[in-house]
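so im writing up the methods section and need the Metal-sensing transcriptional repressor record in one place, dumping it here so i stop losing it
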Amino acid sequence: METLKEAEAEHADVHCCNTERQSHHSDKTKANLVSRLNRIEGQIRGVKGLIEKDTYCDDVLNQIAAAQAALNSVGKLLLEGHMKSCVIERIQAGEHEVIDELLITVNKLMK
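--- predicted struct ---
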């Protein structure tokens, strides 16, 4: 049985070289994700500005926590959509290695 590290290394090779896979997001979902990411981008610029202004560290850390929570929320939405579409489709097509790929991805998200 393949170890998680071996599967991770194999996944890295497949992921960077396989350009034919695409997501299945509806226009509404894509717009929602882009909107959330735009807000997060603004939060990050705000954190940078706070640091440039020598803002009290606790205030900056609270803003960083808010940005991380927002990014985690985007990740959860993407993971849910991925599991409900891509993963199910690939399992139905007999591509059971998608489970290892998913476990690696979840492990990275949980770090």
